[in-house]
Amino acid sequence: MSSQILLVEDEPRLAQFLNLELTSAGYGVTVCNDGMSGLMGVRQLDPNLVILDWMLPCLSGLELCRRLRQTGSKVPIILLTARNCIADRVAGLDSGADDYLVKPFRVEELLARVRTRLRSFQNPQVLRYSDLALNLESREVLQGTQRVELTVKEFDLLTYFLRNPKSVLSRSQIVKEVWHYEHQQNYNLIHVYISHLRKKLEQHNPRRLIHTVRGYGYILR
């Protein structure tokens, strides 16, 4: 599956050009033309990377970066701007941007930076969804900047959901993959662990991530 990029750019010609180049490079691209729609786009689409202009209507790129980081989003952000002085570069990076590219730029340089940021973000040892980051090596879970303490089985359960985001998982699948039982008709155990996991996750963010699919199983969305 190709990496998904959210492009937030209000200049139509540049947005069209970058959309074409990124699509030709094999990425899925969604374009927003102002800061507020960009903010909503990140929340709804959960992209792998965001490219945004500094000067945007409704909400500046700088403020968009700040709001995303304040909510715990770790999505890589490349900031595009005509501002070239050191103070502006520092302000852009301090706002939460991971990279800073001054206009005019060659598209080859942008594509190289996109590849670099995606490589660093898509560490196979770290599973991410929304504001969650689960490190398979250290067995640490972060929700935004807050550490979430999980039992061994809660960690395994969350890992299974994070490996299958936005997919409906049946109770029999969960029992088989997390508890390694081939035949299990009593699913109360799953319900208990899901309840514990939800409670711990919702201490830091009241938005529910694990939803019940009545009569079948659960979904992370």
Automatic annotation (TrEMBL):
Biological processes annotated in GO: regulation of DNA-templated transcription
| SUPFAM superfamilies reported for this sequence | CheY-like (SSF52172)
| Keywords recorded for this protein, A-Z | DNA-binding, Phosphoprotein, Transcription, Transcription regulation, Two-component regulatory system
* Domain OmpR/PhoB-type: residue ranges: 124-221
- The UniProt record lists the Response regulatory domain at 4-118
Q: Which Pfam families match?
A: Response_reg (PF00072), Trans_reg_C (PF00486)
Which is an annotated GO molecular function term of this record? phosphorelay response regulator activity
DNA-binding annotation, residue ranges on this chain: 124-221
Q: Which CDD domains match?
A: REC_OmpR (cd17574), trans_reg_C (cd00383)
Q: Does the keyword Cell membrane apply?
A: no
Q: GO CC terms on record?
A: cytosol; protein-DNA complex
Q: Where is the signal peptide?
A: none
| Annotated positions of the 4-aspartylphosphate modification | D53
Protein name in the entry: Response regulator MprA
* Species of the source: Acaryochloris thomasi RCC1774
